[in-house]
Amino acid sequence: MGRSESRPSGNARGHTARFGLWRAIAATPAMLGSLLLLTLASGALGRWAGLLFFAWAAGAAVLMTRVGERITVRAACRFRSPSRAQAAALQPAWSTALRTTGTAASDVDLYVQTAQTPNAYAAGGRSVAVTSRVLEDYESGQLAEDQFVAVLVHELGHHGTGAARPMLLVSFLVAPWRLAVSLLTGLGSILAGRQPRRGVVIAVVVGLAVAVTRALFQGQWMVGGVLAFVGLAAVFCPLADAAISRRSEFAADRFAADHGLARALAAALHAMDGGWSVAAGWSRRLLASHPTSEQRIRVLLAATGSAESSARLRPRTGIVTGRPR
Known about the structure:
The protein has one domain. It contains 15 helices and 4 strands. It has helices spanning about 10-15, 20-25, 30-40, 50-65, 65-75, 85-100, 130-140, 145-160, 165-175, 175-190, 195-215, 220-260, 260-275, 280-285, 295-305; strands at about 80, 110-115, 120-125, 125-130. The protein has a 4-stranded mixed β-sheet, sandwiched between helices.
């Protein structure tokens, strides 16, 4: 968010910039993998090899500018500037969110993403977006203004805690590695045919273990070490990134709670998906980038210092109580 005037308070202040740094560190093996792939690709370019690295570095430098971020979120995230009607509808809640957090309007760009799923996002250093569905719910009165403000403050909290700042750049730097992994995964799926995904994963793990063992027995320590590192990084780096991402969500929730919006944000979370969704399977829970809504609501209500149970947010009939997000 550039030189944001957003001032995290309480616990959020201690988390400023830490989550973004941790996620960047977790992505370091993938960035090194991208560099290795570019090095291999440059071998085919001969004396023009330097242009490939120059283009990669220049793209990263441009991405760190405000213009570069605007281009990137439009192209990669499908963010769009609000129409005149959307801007008019957003203005009251957005102004309240900026005033509540002490953020200057010039420090952050607000976008709308066309989607039928109610959601909101923080990206880069200065971008916040809401989906068209959230805006429709707000305009129709299904979403109360304080709940909408709480959603916006939560996203500003991602900037205030530094969680979003480096992630567009990191995504760009790891793009070659992720593309290669996607191609290999797709090839493995094709070769495996109709084999269950778990069987494909087991086959890949066993194959990698055999390759590492064979390289070590042949005295190829460098090759074996690289293969082992790649295998471990492929497993642990996504797990680490997901865990850090979940903690950053709690930090952004605390940011909203520190600004007096804990109950409003809990109501918005509850209405978005019923508030009680649980990720199925241990692997999905470990790789989930967000805590479950139930976990977040429980923490938010505890932050209010009230003895009220989160059960009071549950609908007594099929109709959701309160105003949905």
